[in-house]
Amino acid sequence: MNKSQLQQHDREHLLHPFTDFHDLGNQGTRVITSAEGAYITDIDGHKMLDGMSGLWCCNLGYSRREISEAIYEQLNKLPFYNSFFQCTTVPSIELADMLAEVTPAGMNNVFFTGSGSEANDTNLRIIRRYWDLKEQPEKRIVISRKNAYHGSTIGGASLGGMSGMHKQFQSLDYIEHIQQPYWFGEGGDMSPEEFGVHAARCLDEKIQELGPEKVAAFIAEPIQGAGGVIIPPETYWPEIKKVLDQYDILLVMDEVIFGFGRTGEWFGADYYGMKPDLMTFAKAVTNGYFPLGGTMVSDRVAEVIKSKGGEFTHGYTYSAHPAACMAGIATLNILREEKIIETVRDTTGPYLAKRWAELADHPIVGEARTLGLVGALELVKDKNSRARFDDDCTAGGVCRDMSIKNGLVMRATGDTMIIAPPLILTIEQIDELVEKAHRALDDTARAMA
Ligand code: PXG
């Protein structure tokens, strides 16, 4: 099939995730046909630096044969066996061992799933099981944050705080949402430090309003990813820690985007010095080469679930899929052997921070922020008032298209442009990324004038 035939069949038969079918029908999909290193190429031969690592997952880029060969060998040896009913497979045990080593101290058990959404559903099941076994069944409510993203299953979407999603389904009734720590968008006249404390105190207020005896857990991404790379003010996590220390409430950190090195530490929890009770992961655990997710379970929780006996009636056919686990093992080996995370922390992260900050001088950029190898740009019409171009956030979509035209995949969340490039990016490729982003901003400024 040629390009237009592919697009026609795509339109007729494929229901795409998070896609406006009207727009898709008019424009046609971009057909990506190959990838190498940090670059993807479409059917027209247009090569782009992939500033989004696929969808926050191909952190080692696209050319790691160690991972694809590990999957292939496993598929030929034992393509599938389940881990239900007292069965197991060697790759699942080995990956569980490795995850216990690289995750924060006190997290030594893993429950495998096929995705991040499933892992957050698993968290909901574990949380309830934990409090039931502790004979505190009235602890039912889970607090999350507005504009959080925790997946698209009913559990994941209920935990998430995206208003557009909530309009399209009925949320679970035991989930509550508090303010997000988004200083640029919601901080008003407060300093970032003041606002960080304020946003964290919202958790305390909510717990008191609901009654601590009814609150089971608080879930949060260390940094909101899909919500627009919202890096909380430095005061936020320490204040959350203070709040949580006062109550007997579980902390779930959703590391689906920030796990495995994105911040320059193994996990966002390491970066912020937090000790979660449960930790969701997916995406980069296999470098996006094979679907795999899971939740790391702290000793505190695992001991209750394991020692109090009885069956935990939960699991997925593909929990601990052997080929997925082999992909995970190969990925973690590369991260460790090539010191990828240390390079982000010591070299490429600081370099991106320096270069990205230069974009803040651009007339349509209200803020340029980075941490490790993620970044965001806030597009504004007026730098001082932080006023946007329009209510429909058209600048973001224009900038994304301009960026792609200039050979860089940048994502738009409203009028916030975001990047999460592969962690293998070289200094020269960071220069290329910033230069292409600069050109996209120039083109956007012209188009929006
Ligand atoms: N938690 C977080 C923090 C995520 O970012 C999920 C859970 C769900 O994972 P699965 O594997 O079920 O998709 C995610 C996924 C975007 C975008 O547009 C982000 C995600 C997924 C799709 C699109 O930024 N994150």
Calculate the mean pLDDT score and round it. Answer: 97
The major β-sheet equals: 7 strands, mixed
Query: What percent of residues adopt helix (DSSP H or I)?
Result: 40-55%
Distance between the termini: 40 Å
- CATH fold group of the largest domain: Aspartate Aminotransferase, domain 2
Mind telling me which CATH architecture of the largest domain this is? 3-Layer(aba) Sandwich
Overview of the molecule:
The chain is globular, with a radius of gyration of 22 Å. The mean pLDDT is 97. It folds into two domains: 143 residues, Aspartate Aminotransferase, domain 1; 273 residues, Type I PLP-dependent aspartate aminotransferase-like (Major domain) (Aspartate Aminotransferase, domain 2, 3-Layer(aba) Sandwich). Helix 4 runs antiparallel to helix 14, helix 10 runs parallel beside helix 11 and helix 16 packs across helix 17. By secondary structure, the protein is α/β, with parallel strands linked by helices. The protein has a seven-stranded mixed β-sheet with strand order 4-10-9-8-7-5-6, with helices on both faces. It has a four-stranded mixed β-sheet with strand order 1-2-3-13. Strand 7, helix 11 and strand 8 form a beta-alpha-beta unit. The structure holds 3-[O-phosphonopyridoxyl]--amino-benzoic acid. 3-[O-phosphonopyridoxyl]--amino-benzoic acid binds next to helix 6.
Task: Give a brief description.
This protein is of the alpha/beta class.
Task: Itemize the secondary structure elements and their pairings.
Elements: H1 3-13, H2 21-27, E1 32-36, E2 39-42, E3 47-50, H3 53-56, H4 65-77, H5 90-102, E4 107-113, H6 116-133, E5 141-145, H7 154-159, H8 163-166, E6 175-178, H9 183-186, H10 192-210, E7 215-220, H11 236-246, E8 250-254, H12 268-272, E9 278-281, E10 293-298, H13 299-307, H14 322-337, H15 340-357, E11 365-371, E12 374-379, H16 394-405, E13 408-409, E14 411-413, E15 416-419, H17 427-448
Parallel strand pairs: 3-13, 5-6, 5-7, 7-8, 8-9
Antiparallel strand pairs: 1-2, 2-3, 4-10, 9-10, 11-12, 12-15, 14-15
Helix pairs in contact: 4-14, 5-14, 10-11, 15-17, 16-17
The structure holds 3-[O-phosphonopyridoxyl]--amino-benzoic acid.
The site of 3-[O-phosphonopyridoxyl]--amino-benzoic acid has 18 residues, from helix 6.
